Amino acid sequence: MVRLELDQVVMRRMKEDDIEMVKALIKEGCEGTENRLILHILTRPLCLFILAVFSSVLRCLVHSFILALAIPVFLLIIFLKITIPRSTGVLGSSRPYWDYVGSSYRGTEDETLQNPYCRISGKTSVTKKPRRRITPKDKDKDLSTENVTPEREQEAGQVWVADCDGDILGCIFRESEKRANIRRICRLVTGCWYRREGLGRLLVQSLEQRESEGGAHRVYAHVPYPSKMGEAFFRKLGYRQFEEGTDEEEDDEEERKLETPERGFLGYPLTKVFYKDL
Question: Transmembrane region positions (predicted)?
Fold first, then answer.
């Protein structure tokens, strides 16, 4: 773990040159989440029953108890590995994250979030030009020619990155403004070397402050279902699980329909929905 000076972190809109680094950061953060989601699905009673039925059928064809047990499990894991990234995409959105990232970098490139630690320390955070490795593929690839329609760009929302000395340490995804005064955080990722240093809290609270100043009165956050750490993190920031401890009058039927958890194989929930009133 690296000691991080939070007052030196600049939280800014993602630029074109950041796309590959953000994708790598998301891939790193998704590896453990995907495996936990698969384990969660495999251990559900209905899924275990279906696997047992297929194993019984295979037992009549394959004269090996171990193979009859392992083949259905192996095939289901392969199926989930292929379909889970497509079904979850950016959590809370059916769009895959690579499409989301590719559509989000266009905008005001010098737009930043306020960093409260700078006011406390009296220092001014400075952003250096990102250090980027140039590969042969990068030389032949021109991201500026990517076919991004205005509709797709508007639908994508925003990606904010935490930049320190040109290195991207974390990122937060904010869904497009589909409803007045309602915002949605659909992914939060911090680098493995900078966790438990307050970086995730800084990203969320700074984004909340900006959205509150812009007129938003509620923020939703979609958290992977088996992520106990993510659930505890948002609860510490004052979030409550949607439809948990709330009155019927407070959350109308339309709001519940719009913020339903993402579901995957056999309809099992893949996400939990949390909210916070600003």
Answer: 37-58, 64-84
